[in-house]
Design goal:
Number of domains: 3
Number of strands: 7
Oligomer: single chain
Radius of gyration: 32 Å
Largest sheet: 3 strands, antiparallel
Order of helices and strands: HHHHHHHEEHEEEEE
Distance between the termini: 71 Å
Number of helices: 8
Length: 238
């Protein structure tokens, strides 16, 4: 069923009052709203009036509701304090998604200068650098160094191992040795990037560019330990 359209209450103001208000309207938007109400009161088609003022019917319904509640005053645009925001709500959501997923713009990470330049060139937003930085902080982003994280880990296996380890630790008759390897990386340290507050942020590390590895084992109960140095780390050396 089609939605029932609300019509302006003709008792709120006479057509003469509307004519005076239209002439004295402080802004063109206010004049358009008042003229639209006058047209509806005079019997013009609701959809035609919406198309005439280049708004959707939902917006027209809001104008009618405001007029029915407050009369002419409900359609007069109020004075604003300061300049209107250059980053609208729609653009804000798009920018936040872009900062979280730089790969969508063919980037590995964002710096302040890079995201500012991208917004001006690609999204054609006439915003200054300080405005972009203030916006990112309002959206709870901070520049942080991401945590290198291997891309060959199986979280299910890790969790299963942790459960098994708890059982072994509780048994004092078992002598546990822990073995691990540490690589001296040749890759540069990850650069800071914009990450939402509360998130650590991770950058993929697969170990393909290691220059040296140290592999060791240690027994926590006795303190005994052994270490070996290798040029690489694989299943055999480990």
């Amino acid at each position: 069923m089609p939605t029932r359209r609300k019509l302006p209450n003709s008792e709120n103001a006479s057509l003469q009052d509307l004519d005076v208000a239209i002439k004295c309207a402080p802004t063109m938007r206010s004049s358009h709203r008042l003229t639209a109400m006058k047209a509806l009161i005079m019997g013009f088609d609701f959809g035609a009036v919406a198309r005439l003022y280049n708004v959707d019917e939902r917006t027209m319904q809001r104008w009618v509701s405001a007029y029915n509640r407050q009369g002419i005053d409900g359609l007069i645009e109020k004075a604003r304090s300061g300049r209107p925001r250059k980053i609208t709500k729609g653009k804000a959501a798009e920018i936040v998604d872009l900062v979280k997923h730089p790969e969508k713009a063919g980037q590995v990470h964002w710096t302040g200068r890079k995201i500012h330049g991208h917004l001006r060139r690609e999204l054609e937003l006439e915003v200054g650098y300080s405005t972009v930085m203030r916006f990112l902080k309002e959206q709870r982003f901070r520049l942080k160094v991401p945590q290198p994280w291997p891309d060959r880990q199986d979280e299910a296996l890790r969790n299963a191992f942790c459960d098994k380890l708890k059982v072994l630790v509780a048994d004092e008759s078992i002598e546990l040795w822990f073995g691990d390897e540490s690589g001296i990386e040749g890759d540069p340290r990850p650069r800071r990037r914009w990450i939402p507050i509360g998130e650590k942020g991770r950058v993929t590390k697969n170990g393909d560019h290691l220059r040296m590895n140290v592999t060791g084992i240690v027994c926590p109960r006795s303190g005994r330990a052994f270490f070996c140095e290798f040029s690489h780390s694989d299943g055999d050396t480990f």
